[in-house]
Amino acid sequence: MSSAADRAYAEIRGLILAGDAMPGTPLREEALAGIVGVSRTPVRDALRRLEGELYAVRTPGGRLVVADWDADDVAEMFALRAMLEGHAASRAAARMTPQVLAALRDSNGAIEAAVAAPVPDIGIFLRENRRFHDITIAAAGSARLANMLSALVEQPVVRRTAARYDRSDLMRSVVEHGQLVQAFAAGDAEWARATMAAHIRRAFHAFRTAI
Amino acid sequence: MSSAADRAYAEIRGLILAGDAMPGTPLREEALAGIVGVSRTPVRDALRRLEGELYAVRTPGGRLVVADWDADDVAEMFALRAMLEGHAASRAAARMTPQVLAALRDSNGAIEAAVAAPVPDIGIFLRENRRFHDITIAAAGSARLANMLSALVEQPVVRRTAARYDRSDLMRSVVEHGQLVQAFAAGDAEWARATMAAHIRRAFHAFRTAI
DNA sequence: ATCCGCGCTATTGTATACAAAATGGGGCGC
DNA sequence: GCGCCCCATTTTGTATACAATAGCGCGGAT
User: Fold this and answer.
1) Does A65 lie at the interface with B, CB-CB under 8 angstroms?
2) Residue that finishes a domain, picked among A16, A39, A66
3) How confident is the model over A78-88, as pLDDT tens digits?
């Protein structure tokens, strides 16, 4: 895979998500090339991807600036994610295999262990939470769906939310994942869909109160 | 906007959708550059966009080939479109204005006229149908939603379906659009969502029987 | 005869040079 | 003083040259 373009993508995306590049900040190719340490060509590739994922928007004159995520857009992202990931859960339930089910149980077990520790390990929680959802999306068996969701799963948003969770909040995630596993085990697509949608909408409201 | 890159995008996309480039056909940058009459640089831009929209997929070695749309993927596209465009209709209903409503009525009036003509004009039908849906998506006021739907609205798929419509099929679209307008006029988001979802799922089955 | 390894070729990735276009500022006219 | 137009500078778009890498075929050994 293309190393320079990928590094540029990751680094510029990082700048945006970390808040180092505020909304409205112009994304100048040459300046970014200097920062990343590559030429303009891979930077352009990265910017085009970021534009496609709406991390950047184009001014009338063709210049790119960091996109502004207002509260409405965040709400819309959660709504879309609830819909699409609910759909993914539905498909996954219909295609569930013992191996995938075991992987999901393993992931949720790791989350539970991290939460049950004397000092809950947020790092493990985030990593395994991500893995749980990735496994579900992969189990849905739709490349298109996975592609759409990839632009929607904002790890930093999840992180900021999780950082403020107390133990009972974290445990609620474990319980909800457990409910999802039950729905998957039963092969009940609608149960899985509804549970996933509820899980994500709860996360949305946790996020809202967190900020 | 960038003329060469856009022409390359449109032309390569056209090759894929027209069936001139069958699934699995390698998309070689230099060859495409020759066809379009530009250099590799804008062709690369176009290919990256097409890759993001899953018109092309990447082989393990980094080469791009035309993606294969099997029946399952088409079904999934319609399912996603029903979900997302239903959501768009819901949002549009909540944000409806007299101006947008008038534009939608105007569009559907044009469709009805085209269908009612002694020889139904499929060209006008397709153009105005597209406009009707575009107005709805724009009225939803979500750039992210519009962005996702743009990769999902396969005009050629619609075209192949519409080409086999008889007058009663075409008229059914007019009726369904009329129902949507009613839901919009009432500002009933859930009515609009359900009507749009039903409209698209009917189109899906029309497509299935057409092929 | 088949399988492995080597090297060649085709293809993509990256850098740079050049062209075109847009923004911003300064000066001119009203 | 205000507004507008034009030019300089900055920034993006495109082309080309070069580098790296994957694929593939050939030849040899077992």
Assistant:
1) no
2) A66
3) 999 999 999 99
